[in-house]
Structure formats: C-alpha cells, structure tokens
C-alpha cells in the first residue's frame, strides 16, 4: 500500500470510526441494545465462461449488509469484478462503500458516506469520496420505497501513470427507488451525481430481481458510470451488464 493510499484511508476512515463509536454510544443511551438487532443482507455471484475462437471468463461478486435501528442505520457494500480474455486480464475492479445514517424521524435522516473504487483499467490508482448530507424517505411502503440524499462531499483521486493526486470539494445528490412489481419481482433504480469544479462523476444502476425459490433469486443489472475528466487514452463512460444469483439473509 503506497503512502497516498494510507493517507486517504486514515483521513477518511478515522472520522467514520469515530462516527460508529458515537452511534454505539447513542444506541446504548437510547436503549437500542434491548431490542433485537435488525440485520439483513444479500450476497451475489455471477460467472461466465466461453471457449472456441476466444477463451474468456468473468466473475462478478457483491456483498451488501445493513442494520436498521431506531436511531442509527448502517450499510456496507463490497463488490469485485474480474474478466479475462485469452488468458489476459481485461477488467479488474473493486468497490467498497460504508454508510451511516442518523434518523431524525421516520422520513428524515443525516447521511454520511465513505467509498473507494480501485479499477485497474480506469487510469486511476483509486477514487475516494467522503460525503455528509440530508436524506429524506419519499415512500416508505413495503411495495414502494424511495429516498433522496443531498449534501457536500470531498473527493480524492490518484492518477496511476503520473502519481498526481487530485482533491476537491464536491456536491452530492443521490436517490434510490425500490418497487415490488409483484411478490417475487423487484425493480431497483439507483442514481448519484457528484459534480465538482474540476471533475464530475455520475452513476446509474438499474436492476431487476426475480425470486427463484426461498432466499435465492436471479438478478439482471445494467450500470453506467460517466467521469467528466479521465486520464489520457481512457473513455469517459463505463458500462456493465450483469447476470447474477442472489442469496438473501
């Protein structure tokens, strides 16, 4: 791990750890520990192997874990993607996202976010964002849930070829929609915009999940990431289509 990575992790993770400590103390004071914890999550795995004129393989894995409390909600997302073509790696990407929300009411909350992406073929050694803002749950029904978040943030990116680190304050706007089309089919739409003076990043992911049996489901997803300013010889738009098996717990 290089010095720049250690610096950004320390700079952003320490406040997050302090935030979690405050959450634990607040939960204890509010008597949350007396209530049974509400943990849930989902693990995804998708793979594709082809042979013939071109030998290729791909692996896509995700882990989402969340805890919903009376005062504090915690969410952790991890993702890894790897593809090879004729024995050569053509894609290698890792994402980690940590979010802590302090609920004010059933609908409003304070959202804090810390995330990092490491994409071997993006031209960046890493892209890290920390943000805090106001969140509002527009719909809270079991069949239809939606929320938006808005607030300031700070981005730190390191360019791989030059080793130059770029930092700037940003604005962050994000939203998520979950629609239970039927008891066995769910549509999820997530979007985010992180505009800055020097660079801006926009993301969108649409997924359709269908229950197979019990806790198992299949998922089709399409994601798009647009980065306004990228290193030389790199494209601005990154698209991904995935087919995965989901296990919910």
Automatic annotation (TrEMBL):
UniProt signal peptide: 1-26
Keywords: Signal
Protein name: DUF481 domain-containing protein
Species name: Bacterioplanes sanyensis
Biological classification of the source: Bacteria, Pseudomonadati, Pseudomonadota, Gammaproteobacteria, Oceanospirillales
